Amino acid sequence: MTRTHIPVLAGELIDLTAPAAGETAVDGTFGAGGHARLVAERLGPAGTLVCIDRDPAAEEHFAEFAREAPCETRFLRMDYADGLAVLGEEGLEADLVYLDLGISSMQVDARERGFSYSYDAPLDMRMDPGQELDARAIVNDWDERRLAQLFRRYGEEPNARRIAREVVRRRGRAPIDTTAELVAAIEAALPAAARRRFGGAHPGKRVFQAIRIAVNSELDSLDRALPLAWALLREDGRFAAISFHSLEDRRVKRFLAERARGCVCPPDFPVCVCGREPEAEVLSPRAVAPTAGEVEHNPRAKSARLRAARKLAPGAAA
Ligand SMILES: C[S@@+](CC[C@H](N)C(=O)[O-])C[C@H]1O[C@@H](n2cnc3c(N)ncnc32)[C@H](O)[C@@H]1O
């Protein structure tokens, strides 16, 4: 089985979170196991790595990984938020939980799965092929206002309304069933000037991102997962997330900043009455970005941003 996914910010993830021999780690987004391989080496024979992914193709990669892994391994095929909840109910205590968000190169490159605007395929985009909602349903069933909102909020697409209008106009004649039909609608909706402003980027990039996020409830999963991941950590445990767009990165940043915040008393109070202590030490005061060398080697790393934090023992920040 071919692994075409190159793990992003891998050295930086290891340096920041320092997985150590005998520890227990959770990889919430296993993919092809690129990060998992590096973490597993650090954990060694006395360590355990629990891997989660909702895509059955990732489970096949896991089977290959598990045969040779240098540590104990386990796989949960489910949404990572559900997986973290299951592990919490089981009473697992983790030294490290990390998420490498978004889609894998294997998913983008599997043409028939419809994630890519570069290949003609049925409109699908489901990471879990067992789920009901797919891209075709969104494109053909959502009303114009909802589509425009989706393209604007999740794609940050400046021409969201025009594109939504064109999609609705075209699907009134015949359903939009394929990625090529959707790309044609997007291209027809964009004024020539807007097409030029995209520079090298494909005009479908933002809309495809927006639809993919909605199909896979990506932001809901992240919102549910952050507190569950934090709750799994023991004292001194580390959490890390690699995001690929600002909607994800903002959530991670806010969540960690909130945990790292101490006293919330008004500044004119002479002494602290809230008694609130920081629970986290942020290990990445600025988000870590890939080097120019990494982007040259792997252009898909370009927008990646890594953030990490360590869970503090009560009183440790005093
Ligand atoms: C960027 S890839 C991870 C690549 C991996 N770190 C590697 O080095 O091979 C993201 C993976 O997370 C999975 N994924 C994304 N959102 C998920 C979710 N909410 N629950 C479970 N898996 C998810 C995708 O199916 C995909 O395999």
Task: Characterize the structure shown.
- By secondary structure, the chain is α/β, with parallel strands linked by helices.
- It is built from 14 helices and seven strands.
- Strands 3-2-1-4-5-7-6 form a seven-stranded mixed β-sheet, sandwiched between helices.
- Helix 7 crosses helix 8, helix 7 (144-155) packs across helix 11 (205-215) and helix 8 (160-173) crosses helix 9 (179-189).
- It is globular and about 65 Å long.
- The N and C termini lie far apart (51 Å).
- The relative contact order is 0.13.
- The mean pLDDT is 94.
- The structure holds S-adenosylmethionine.
- The site of S-adenosylmethionine (SAM) has 21 residues, from helix 2.
Descriptors for this entry?
318 residues; alpha/beta; seven-stranded mixed sheet; 14 helices; 45% helix; binds S-adenosylmethionine
